[in-house]
Write a structure and sequence with these properties.
Blueprint (H helix, E strand, L loop, with lengths): L1 E3 L2 E11 L6 H4 L2 H17 L6 E11 L9 E5 L5
Length: 82
Amino acid sequence: MMRDGDVLVFVEVKTRVRGALVPGYHAVDQRKKRVLRRAIQSYLQRLAQRPVTHRLDVVEVEMPRPGDSGDAELRHFVNVSF
């Protein structure tokens, strides 16, 4: 969880090896979004002061395969609908 100005940002991070069958972003499917929505609503209800707004971001970390050279690649998807 982070803040972006007045926006409370919930972040789902998915790490995959390069060339994975299902990329990290696509692993946040409708079922996972329902789980996140319930968790976020539960969290927000417990806050003494609710934020003006909130959003869900997905960060995809793509790691090189074992033995391959190169760095991890990061992709940040902002305000994913859920």
